[in-house]
């Protein structure tokens, strides 16, 4: 029985892998392969010859900071006008993974996802007073009937008006935690640094409605916890600092900042962790921690999240009320919470990358694995087939990686040249069919970007290693 | 051995279900439950008392057609201004499922997903001549520097300009099949019918670049096949008709239409399937099929997809070229392809629903299963706990349904009232703890919307039935 099982175990993977290849090929309609080939990806063909794609020459393509340079050169974004970018396929893949991660954390705090229009009627903004207050940061337009709109940079007015339409809202339905992941628009006076400060960008914005101030503060702290979990999952060093409430308003506010020299925000941190604030929040004289007296350390940060306790600032304007347990109409206590989705992508690249090589939080890398087969005409050429089988076997054995592997089929180039490109693009794992692919059994060279390790592994070893890769 | 196995089999589900409940509860941070409760969903509290939510009273909330009425009443959409809607949580769930299905079919034909800005510079549209040609359908605006933009209703100009920046494009990289799923904007003179004709909507648009006319026609037919697979997967009856190319241009065009009385397009169909066209394409005298001579049947349709063979109309304007095998620069042959994502949602509801009950293509129903526990204080009340266990066990045994089940905890209402609501919202499966929940073993009443069947099943029977549900 034991022997039979072992024999079957030996057989099954090979059989099922072959069947899987066929099934996949048929489904993809790609002939015999169905593999993702680097030569077919819509990205600059050759990263060595920088500038050849011509994108750096476009307005917004000049390299004002590391992430902008690397993302334009690596074919992640392409300038489409001042402060506007095309998100190219690899960037969309990273973004969708990030959104998946954010969705999970928002659901975990009871978030319900909706989607509000970008066209935001002027009357909502006039009611809150922000039609004038926001000044030239609002993109404004009129429709064919002369009715005024702005393109929503944020949606406090819209969501409060929406909740106010539910005139029979009961305290039992609260808290309401509504969020969306949509494009936002802000007519920045000086868009710059690529996706770090652009005019059209993706944001996750949540709006919460509670029955009491106490409940609203509980919600506030729950959402802040969720934000921390997002940055922890990404492996990004961040600080949560006290912040100004700005044009959004409210009484309490925090920013989530990634410390970085390029950051536009100036922060002070207590070295023992008792206090952290945006300098907007402290007087120039304050140089020590208000709690422990330690000297405050100045640093710069990239703002990637912002939370506001709003109270009834908007609910009172739009009359967003609910029936209390005593059946009295009361104003909902609100909070709002933003995560800069595209800004997180760029900020992560900014803080993790080296001067000329992109590094991703591994959870959201556009592709997890790059396979580099031998150069055409080399001694190891027959290793190409083994590598293709390994690619297919991995997709079969580790289904969550099935769409997450690319095969660098530019076999007219040396392995070294392609490895250099792979290094620049920051695949967490690169698998090379080097000299030892001719060993029996064949041995593959596996580069792990995050640990800096190089391993020599058999087919089974590669699959075992990669079966541990987490995907969102 | 056999006996041992059987005993273990009996034990394991109970144990693993309990452990799973704990794990899930911890993960969700929702106390002991972590279940999706109907009373907590952001939707009208009571569907019986129509109009109470106040949404129908807003502009755009009046019921001009079935899908609009049902989607507003059911809390799927809420008017946000003329031709603009908030997509509420259930609609977003359906939309994300639909997008998942479309993504899969686009990837299957080699589609690479990108995302282009909504702010589309006027100079692109002036270059193609459409800045004037599109007239008042374009939403136009100027930024703080006085630079003109429109909000993209479609992206032929933008994508062709983008591909043209890759000045060293090789024939080896072709075909390029780029697509996005983004909001589009069109200043309709008469927005109406809810999501069927709105001013801000989601569209999937694909743009293809091929090395020759022959290759481009192959791409055209591949993408049409993919569109057919989308509608087939949704179980929607559709026709593919010859269509006018309109302002997009090109030489060949087809529309994908769902036959419906409310449809704004007039079609003629050959009863034997030899010919189908939008009436725009035929002369008034033509009343018989050009192929077989059968009399043409007039019908109306809702346009849900549109394909265009463009040739070099746009590539010649923006100089989107590639190097041929002979190393000569040639213009790319283009096609463009649209699927109305939010329109498909509404059109599906329009054609599948009854007068007062929503019916979804089961693949994209917002939730697959609704659990209705007994009324509080009824004889069957103790069945509530059994139902909660069934909910949890299903999530454990059929993980793809874990986030797809809701528990109607409004136990102050009779089962009958809640079943009526569930029927109106169109859950594919409704599971009721009726009288027979007190049997030993307990028996649940399972309503299958799509087959109209009512089944009486044990816990194991329910799980077996639902393990066959397909999710995208």
TrEMBL record, chains A, B:
<dbReference type="InterPro" id="IPR050062">
    <property type="entry name" value="Pro-tRNA_synthetase"/>
</dbReference>
<dbReference type="InterPro" id="IPR002316">
    <property type="entry name" value="Pro-tRNA-ligase_IIa"/>
</dbReference>
<dbReference type="GO" id="GO:0005739">
    <property type="term" value="C:mitochondrion"/>
</dbReference>
<dbReference type="InterPro" id="IPR004154">
    <property type="entry name" value="Anticodon-bd"/>
</dbReference>
<dbReference type="InterPro" id="IPR006195">
    <property type="entry name" value="aa-tRNA-synth_II"/>
</dbReference>
<keyword id="KW-0547">Nucleotide-binding</keyword>
<keyword id="KW-0030">Aminoacyl-tRNA synthetase</keyword>
<dbReference type="InterPro" id="IPR036621">
    <property type="entry name" value="Anticodon-bd_dom_sf"/>
</dbReference>
<keyword id="KW-0067">ATP-binding</keyword>
<dbReference type="GO" id="GO:0006433">
    <property type="term" value="P:prolyl-tRNA aminoacylation"/>
</dbReference>
<dbReference type="InterPro" id="IPR045864">
    <property type="entry name" value="aa-tRNA-synth_II/BPL/LPL"/>
</dbReference>
<keyword id="KW-0648">Protein biosynthesis</keyword>
<dbReference type="InterPro" id="IPR002314">
    <property type="entry name" value="aa-tRNA-synt_IIb"/>
</dbReference>
<dbReference type="Pfam" id="PF00587">
    <property type="entry name" value="tRNA-synt_2b"/>
</dbReference>
<dbReference type="InterPro" id="IPR033730">
    <property type="entry name" value="ProRS_core_prok"/>
</dbReference>
<protein>
    <recommendedName>
        <fullName>proline--tRNA ligase</fullName>
        <ecNumber>6.1.1.15</ecNumber>
    </recommendedName>
</protein>
<feature type="domain" description="Aminoacyl-transfer RNA synthetases class-II family profile">
    <location>
        <begin position="96"/>
        <end position="361"/>
    </location>
</feature>
<dbReference type="GO" id="GO:0005524">
    <property type="term" value="F:ATP binding"/>
</dbReference>
<keyword id="KW-0436">Ligase</keyword>
<dbReference type="Pfam" id="PF03129">
    <property type="entry name" value="HGTP_anticodon"/>
</dbReference>
<dbReference type="GO" id="GO:0004827">
    <property type="term" value="F:proline-tRNA ligase activity"/>
</dbReference>
């Amino acid at each position: 029985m034991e022997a039979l099982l072992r024999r079957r175990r030996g057989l099954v993977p090979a059989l099922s892998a072959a069947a899987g290849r066929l099934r996949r090929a048929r489904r993809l309609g790609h002939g015999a392969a169905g593999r993702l080939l680097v030569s077919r990806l819509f990205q600059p063909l050759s990263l060595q010859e920088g500038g050849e794609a011509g994108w750096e020459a476009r307005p917004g393509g000049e390299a004002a900071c590391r992430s902008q340079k690397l993302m334009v050169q690596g074919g992640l974004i392409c300038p489409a006008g001042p402060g506007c970018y095309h998100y190219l396929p690899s960037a969309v893949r990273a973004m969708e993974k990030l959104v998946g991660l954010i969705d999970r954390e928002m659901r975990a705090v009871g978030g319900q996802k909706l989607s509000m229009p970008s066209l935001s009627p002027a009357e909502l903004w006039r009611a809150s007073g922000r039609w004038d207050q926001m000044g030239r940061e609002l993109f404004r337009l009129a429709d064919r009937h002369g009715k005024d709109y702005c393109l929503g940079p944020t949606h406090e007015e819209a969501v409060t008006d929406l909740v106010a339409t539910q005139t029979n809202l009961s305290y039992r339905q609260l808290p309401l935690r509504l969020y969306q992941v949509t494009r936002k628009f802000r007519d920045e006076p000086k868009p710059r640094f690529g996706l770090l400060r652009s005019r059209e960008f993706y944001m996750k914005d949540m709006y919460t409605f509670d029955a009491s101030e106490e409940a609203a503060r509980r919600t506030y702290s729950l959402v802040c916890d969720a934000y921390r979990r997002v940055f922890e999952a990404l492996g990004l060093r961040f600080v949560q600092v006290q912040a100004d409430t700005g044009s959004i308003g409210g009484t309490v506010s925090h920013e989530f900042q990634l410390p970085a020299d390029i950051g536009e925000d100036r922060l002070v941190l207590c070295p023992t962790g008792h206090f952290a604030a945006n300098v907007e929040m402290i007087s120039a004289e304050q140089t020590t921690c208000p709690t422990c007296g330690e000297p405050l350390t100045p640093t710069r940060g990239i703002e990637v999240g912002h939370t506001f306790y709003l109270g009834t600032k908007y609910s009172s304007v739009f009359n967003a009320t609910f029936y209390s347990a005593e059946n009295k109409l009361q104003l909902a206590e609100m909070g709002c919470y933003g995560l800069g989705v595209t800004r997180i992508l760029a900020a992560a690249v900014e803080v993790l990358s080296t001067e000329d090589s992109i590094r991703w939080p591994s959870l959201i890398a556009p592709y997890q694995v790059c396979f580099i087969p031998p150069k055409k005409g080399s001694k190891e050429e027959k290793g190409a087939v083994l590598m293709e089988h390994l690619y297919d076997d991995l997709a079969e054995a580790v289904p969550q990686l099935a769409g997450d592997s690319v095969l660098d089929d530019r076999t007219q180039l040396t392995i070294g040249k392609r490895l250099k490109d792979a290094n620049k693009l920051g695949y967490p794992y690169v698998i090379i069919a080097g000299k030892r692919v001719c060993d029996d059994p064949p041995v593959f060279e596996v580069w792990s970007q995050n640990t800096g390790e190089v391993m020599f592994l058999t087919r089974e070893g590669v699959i075992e290693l990669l079966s541990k890769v987490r995907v969102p």
